[in-house]
Amino acid sequence: MTHQEIIIAGFGGQGILSAGRILAYAGMLEGKNVSWLPSYGPEMRGGTANCHVIISDEPVGSPILNSATALIVMNGPSLEKFESFVVPGGLILTDSSLVTKSPARKDIDVCEIPATKMASDMGNLTYANIILIGKLIAKTGVTTIQNFTEALKKVLPEKKHYLIPEEIQALEAGMNY
Amino acid sequence: MGEKLLMKGNEVIAEAALRAGCRYYFGYPITPQTEIAHYMAKMMPKVNGTFIQAESEVAAINMVYGAASAGARVMTSSSSPGISLKQEGISYASCAELPAVIVNIVRCGPGLGGILPSQGDYFQAVKGGGHGDYKLVVLAPYSVQELYELTVEAFNIADRYRVLAMIMGDGTLGQMMEAVEFRDKEETPDFKKDWALTGTGMNREHNVVTSIYIKPEELEAHNIKLQKKYEQIALNETRVEVYNCDDADIIVAAYGSVARIVKNVIKMAQKEGIKVGLIRPITLWPFPSKAFEKYAQVPKAFLTVELSAGQMVEDVRLAVNGKNNVHFYGRMGGMLPTQKEILDRIKQILK
Amino acid sequence: MAVVFKRPHALKDVSLPYCPGCSHGIIHRLVAEVIDELGVEGEAIGVSSVGCTYNNYLFFNCDMAQAAHGRAPAVATGIKRVHPDHVVFTYQGDGDLAAIGTAEIVHAAARGEKITTIFVNNAIYGMTSGQMAPTTLLGQVTQTTPYGRKPELHGYPIKVCEMLSTLEGAAFVERVSVHDIKNIMNAKKAIKKAFQTQLDKKGFSIVEVLSTCPTNWGLEPVEAIQWLQENMLPAYPLGNFKDKDMEV
Q: I want to staple C203 with a disulfide (CB 3.0 to 4.6 A). Which of B175, C112, C187, C230 is the partner?
């Protein structure tokens, strides 16, 4: 049974909210119940950003997460803020290019991926979020590459569709890391 | 039903209004509902509609008054401080029996307060934030799908009874994305608006839209007419979800986004052998008192959970009418109760 | 027998409730005559405001809405946007338009709403019995300026036409008076021009009409006309402030 409660957190501008949105869309295309809730208001502008994504076989109750089965963090402060949210046995994915500290907890699965470095090697920094999502999909099976591709088509404006093959490359790089 | 889409609550409200045939939107920016205005600004020109960013909330609600007088389906949206400013127009339009839809994506007060979710405007919405004896039909969706269904319904209720209908949500609902399925086409009944200001065409007596009746006999008669209409609405339009209440140990009353948290609590409690029921008012006015009357003696106690200092709890107490204890748990300022907090409170009550 | 003078069709056959010597009756008649002459009664929609004329929706034969205090331009905006080919007008006093409704009139003009406003300036609040208006003259005694309007205490009168004529969206702005026959004729011309501006979809139009309020000024009707000429005309010069027709 699928029930994933995912928090994605980092700086504004890292594609935190859009990564969550594409993931939720892919989950919906997978036939799951999904919700996506962004942090909103002044903190969006230049500060930290986070979103809560639920992908579940069951109807979604509250979209607000007090705990998470998986956490993706793309900056240090977010790890400090959300590490304690993760349930025992849960998963933390960090962008180790930017998050220099490792999670302190021992009761969880930790994947440290130099996503920003990998994205930079691919020639486009904005793929770091997708690389991390790739790893999340590989670890949890919440969706498939096929549905993720479909979700990209729904979420990206038509004029950006030419980027989709590269995005999928980034996703696969994350999955295979 | 059409394709399943993943959409933001605020955008779904706007899309639902357009699908219901609303072609006039007047508003003023305020967080956390501004996406409604963005969506309308983008879409209205494509459907030959009108979007005006008004100079104030006061002007916006009076533009609504004008467009509704002229016979159009019209909407405005705002958040708490802006809704306070609209109260003058709300009272006038209610007296003039104008149909329109008002959206309040509630934020924390009092004052400028904060932008996070709150349910602190319950009293303002259901007891009358403006002056005089009037009622709004207040609909409280708890999912994105319901934002769609109830927004469409709000337009129909408004036209059917010539009243204002309010969609009341909070930032959680407005900002969240969830799957939504739209019907291919909305069936809008033909509401004959022979009272509307369309120009006499020199072939009928002039129509007048007014909220002033200087003669006390006339004003009392008008008030009685309004009250009779409200009785009809209470009879026909009360909506409620009763969930898991038969042989419940405790029944929780909650609406909107809080009811979603409570549904999670119900699952958590089940695992511990506690049976929690939920009565979720979908119309806050008319209040589903009958559901509470029916279950008044079923559980050991009632608990009302709100994002306020305790507002709907008063209506729950009136409905339970002394037949059971009604407890309250609330958070304010944008703080949300966790599932564990609510479960702890339930256990404490049942001890 | 030939009829040489009759009630305009746009004005209902009712007796108007205004005080002796008040100008509202004349101004109502002028508006109705213009509606008749332009042949637009069937598509005219008026908006009454709050003040002595709060219920003039009963006097005009066209469709009418009654608006909250100061909000008539916003209500008219809503109506006009639904019926863009109809003729929509507001009838407002100085307290309604230039105090509580300042934002609404300024922004309706700024948006260039194709509506016509008849703005009646009698330098005092009539219906609430004689308080200071935003257009009350310096030195003028009212219930709330019992020692005369003093700039250091009460500020200065607002010159609505001068102010609104600075706005791009305002297409026709004129101040007239109805204290004698010649001026009444001029006033009618201006009102007609204002409605025509709307029909031609040029933008917002307003006619400010200087008006008497003998009751609250504490004067006999004839004295009131005298007072208007001696005090209001110097403070509020008559004339056209804007006419997009005349602009090159």
A: C112
ipTM: 0.95
Q: Rounded to an integer, what distance in angstroms lies between the CA atom of residue C58 and that of residue B215?
A: 14
With CB atoms and an 8 Å threshold, state whether A36 touches B336.
no
Domain B4-237 fold is Rossmann fold (3.40.50)
Is A3-176 in CATH node 3.40.920.10? yes
CATH number of B241-350: 3.40.50.920
For testing the chain B interface, which of A6, A30, A55, A64 should be mutated: the one with the most B CBs within 10 Å? A64
Q: Residues C107-165: pLDDT tens digits? A: 999 999 999 999 999 999 999 999 999 999 999 999 999 999 999 999 999 999 999 99
Q: Which residues of chain B lie closer than 8 angstroms to A34, CB-CB?
A: 6, 177-179
Sketch out chain C's domains with CATH numbers: 24-243 (3.40.50.970)
Residue B212 to residue C54, Cβ atoms within 8 A: yes
Which residues from B are below 8 Å from A63, CB to CB? 172, 176, 178, 257, 260
- Break chain B into its structural domains and give their ranges: 4-237, 241-350
Give CA separation, A28 vs A22, A146, B184, B257, B314, in Å: 10, 13, 20, 21, 39
Chains C and A: 3 or more CB pairs within 8 Å of each other: no
pLDDT digits (tens, 9 = 90+) for B205-254: 999 999 999 999 999 999 999 999 999 999 999 999 999 999 999 999 99
